[in-house]
Amino acid sequence: MRVILAALSLAALSACSSSVPDSGAPADAPLGATPAYRGFDGAGARASAESGVETSALPPDGNAPLPATTASEQAPATPGVVSYALSTTNAVGQKLYRRSIFALPALAARNCAEYPSDDAAQEAFLAAGGPERDRLNLDPDGDGFACNWDPAPYRRLAARSGG
User: Is Signal one of the keywords UniProt gives this record (predicted)?
Assistant: First the structure.
């Protein structure tokens, strides 16, 4: 009797699912895109028309390409990052904090790619409760340092300046 009920349940569930054919057309936005990179269906054009800003130099979709940043162009370190670097003594990779089994390095790498610099990722990590909590999954190894952020340059500078 159970086998019959299970078979009927599976048949009913499979009859309810509709298959969606793949048109082969590309998705609307790339997987890594965030709302900040997407257009707002004419809202920008309307705002620029009202403000008198020329938009003819923009691509047809209205989104300006983002400039690539290099290490020398990245934002300077914020006071929170510097003070955190000077308040720690552990090495990069030295586990101090417990992390979830779901804190996978590959997922952390994807999350880290959302930040313009390692300093920005570390600042967000600290603001979100790090290093004790890693809500943003930026520190899977539990060393207290988000992404590829390294406190060593700040520590060396403080040691050279006598502080």
Answer: yes
